[in-house]
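Re: your question from the hallway

Yes, I did run it. Sequences:
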Amino acid sequence: MKKYCGIALGLTLAIFLLGACERPPESAKVGIILPGTGEKAKFGEIEKKSFEMALEEINAAGGINGKKLEFLYEDDTGRPDVARAAAEKLLTKEGVVMLGGGYGSSETFAIAGVAQQDRVPFLVSTGSDNKITERKWDYVFRLNQPVSDYSKALESFLTDIVKPQKVAILYENTNFGSSGSKTFQETCERLKFQVVMNEGYQSGGVDFKPLLVKVKQANPDVVYMVSYLMDASLIMKQSMELQLSPKVFVGGGAGFTLPEFGQNAGKAGELVYSATLWYQTLPYPGAKEYYEKFIQKYKMDTEYHGAEGYSSAYVIADALKRAKTLSPEDVRESLTGTDLMTVFGPVKFVAYEKMTNQNKLPTYLVQWINGKLEMVWPKETATKPYVYPIDWEKVWK
Amino acid sequence: MEMFIQTLVAGILIGGVYALIGLGMTLIMGVMRIINLAHGQLMMVAMYITFVLYEFLGLDPYYSLLIAPPLLFLLGAAIQKYFLNPLLKIDSVIPQNQILMTVGVGIVLTETIRFIFHSDYKSVKTSYSSSTFMIGSISWNVPMVVAFGLAVLLTACLFFFLLKTDTGKSVRATAQNKDAAMVMGINAEWITQLTYGLGAAMAAAGGTLLLPIYYLFPDVGAPFTLKAFIITVLGGLGSTVGAIFGGLVLGVAESLGATYISMALKDAFGMVIFVLVLVFLPGGLKTLTKV
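Structure:
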């Protein structure tokens, strides 16, 4: 038995050594941290596949000045402590040049802390909490819009077109839901809309009618909902049953822009508005092509998270190409000089409000029209004119 | 007032479905003296069966009532025969280690379904899923009303079975005193299988009725196990009449709480009632009746 143990041990060692030798020296390694398991896995998967797709294209086009670009993925499982450990592993063990990814805000914040401490640049692709870029951390860059910008397009739509008096806010009682509802409540106060109701609910409920009956009594002009997919569909279906008819229903992103929402809610989802960060019809070069190529390649739908991942990969490649050497300091230097057009929009890291190294992009408003999600606001990028005012009785017939 | 009535209606309708799911658990509880912690998971399996029949054969979920519950009956009876009954013969530190087995069965069912169907959300979309009719200004959801009606009907059938048939009487006899029942020549082992199968079938019926209005994913079962458990305690362990009222009370309490206090605390209401019943009415609602 002892003999076999020895052999096994020897073999294992040999494999390790071989593995170490086999690695091609000619590659630029970048660590990407995304959720691969856990609740957020679905979006993590879309993003990872987008990173992969971009990577193939970048390497096919010559990589980083002749060197191959390599992404090392780590799973943060949707937990900040795991994210932190993953970042540390990538930095110390793998010696990556920089970090990318970052899905959930808490996980992203944890990774950003490690990156700043170890003085290695980190490009955030999705984590949206404002504080991530508000710490004056010079090694942390962000491609996507911060959460406070999410409702920018919605604000102008409401003040210009709907001009509501009363607003009701419904949210799932999680971090994501309550922070979303708080931000929107503040927005409403700033815009002088009266918030007649601001109530949480437990995700996964069968019957939302008690809540919706209350909304009906309050008779708001706008119903704003921060919900994930299935709650979003059920809330809309049951609103239809109760003939709850405000001037507009608005989803605060998340569940309301996914294709599954259209399938599940059916006609109850018709003419619902939602804020979004990106849409494939935007007039950015390659946006539509990215969308089509992704669907063709992976046989699944993609949305703004995917576009963020795809664009991040290109920003990373661009920064590495322009860097004098592949040392973290030079890469950081080169990231600050980024001025690149991506499928997600133009990328340039600037300081505004309290944030630094933050990319500034507009946000958009979409609406479900005839079972399809259409960009309706701002007017310059609209693919279809918005439908307003809405005759709910006719829509729900 | 309108708000109150609408809330009450919503609570009673959902309470009917809760009662159906709770009944299955209480039946198992009565005969075997264990809490079936795989109950919600059995319901989930039935929902997937209904979903598959709908998706691939285009079978209306209500027709699946003739298929899913019988299949779950077989599954339940098999679980009892091959997993739970053998445990009776083993002496162990924990006298009721069958309960632990039901937890295991629940996990295996969930993960098997996850393996086959992944974690994606699925739903069945029928023409009547969102159809409603109005009585005055109160809206009634058609599938909810149908679910309630069928739940009442199934409960009536169960009562008839338990009170009037020989087999039903054997089930009740086993529940009352297993040893005495065996002395009287009742095959108690077979009765336990029958009961577990029936319980599973009731849960399956509940799940199938719920599908047109709800959605499904592999973890959908656990919250319903908890609800069934609350109902069972609320109604008095093992009491069928108690379970029906338990279900209705839970549904109405959840609805009223959600309307007048906060929907964010919906699940808390069930638990508060659970604690209150244990403190003030340890025998459950059944102590208030004679059945």
